[in-house]
Amino acid sequence: MSSLNLVEQSKRSAAFAAVDKHVGPTVRVLGVGSGSTVVYAAERLLELKRLNKLHPELLCVPTSFQSKQLIVDAGLRASDLDDLPELDPGSGSFASIDVTIDGADEVDAELNAIKGGGGAHLREKLVAAASRKLVLIADYRKDSEVLGDKWDKGVPVEVSPLAWSTIKRQLERMVPKSRVQGVSTADAAAAFEFNHPIAVLRQAVRKAGPV
C-alpha cells in the first residue's frame, strides 16, 4: 500500500472497511456497484473468498459492465436481478439482495448523496431498490456540508430513450435557468446533467467519519 498515493489509500481503506463490516458468511446475495472505489471492494472480496469467509454460494449482482468484470475476475458468481432466488412470500419484503456496496459522487452532512455520475445510474438504482441494505463508500474528497460543494457536474438523471424529449422539457420547465444536456450511457439510455441543488435522494442510516 506504500506505493499508493493518499487518495488511493483512502479509497482502499474505505472499501475494505465496508466489505469487512457488511459482507460476511451470512450474506447470500451481494450487489456490487460501479466506480473506482468499488475496485478495491472487489479486491477485498477476493481475499475473503480465498480465506473461506464468504457464503459458499454467494451471488453477486453487478450494476455495470465494469462491476461484472470485477466479479468474474474475482472468481465470484455474477447474477442478474431477474435470476435471483424467489423470496419467501411470508417475509413481507421485496428486497432480494442482502447488501449492496456502491460508490458515491458526493455525500453531505445530512447523509444525502449524489450518484450516477459514472453513467450507470439506472442499474445502480434498480439494484439499490432491491437491497435490504445499501452501503456507499467514498473517500474524504466526496465529503461535504451541502451537496454541490464538491460535485459540480450537475445531478445525474437517466431516462429511457422513449421519454428523452418529455423528461428534458419537464426539467427545463421546473428550472428554466438550468442546463440540460443529453449524453450517451453504457446502457444505451439518455442521461441529463441537471444543474440544480435540489434532488430526491436516498438517505443513509448513519455516516462514518472521513477516511
Explained architecture:
The protein is an alpha/beta fold. The protein is 29% helix and 19% strand. It is built from 5 helices and 10 strands, in the order H-E-H-E-H-E-E-E-E-H-E-E-H-E-E. Strand 5 and strand 6 form a beta hairpin. The longest helix is centred in the first third of the chain and has 17 residues, at 6-22.
Note the gap between the termini.
15 Å
Rg calculated over all Cα atoms: 18 Å
| Morphology call | globular
Number-wise, the strands total 10
Order of helices and strands: HEHEHEEEEHEEHEE
Give the rounded overall mean pLDDT.
80
Strand order of the largest sheet: 3-2-1-4-7
**Structural class from helices and strands?**
alpha/beta
Tag the structure with descriptive keywords.
single chain, 211 residues, alpha/beta, 5-stranded parallel beta sheet, 3-stranded antiparallel beta sheet, 5 helices, 19% strand, globular, disordered C terminus
Question: Quick summary of this structure?
Answer:
By secondary structure, this protein is an alpha/beta fold.
How are the elements arranged and paired?
Elements: H1 6-22, E1 29-32, H2 36-50, E2 59-62, H3 65-73, E3 77-78, E4 97-103, E5 106-107, E6 113-114, H4 121-129, E7 131-137, E8 155-159, H5 164-174, E9 182-184, E10 190-194
Helix pairs in contact: 1-2
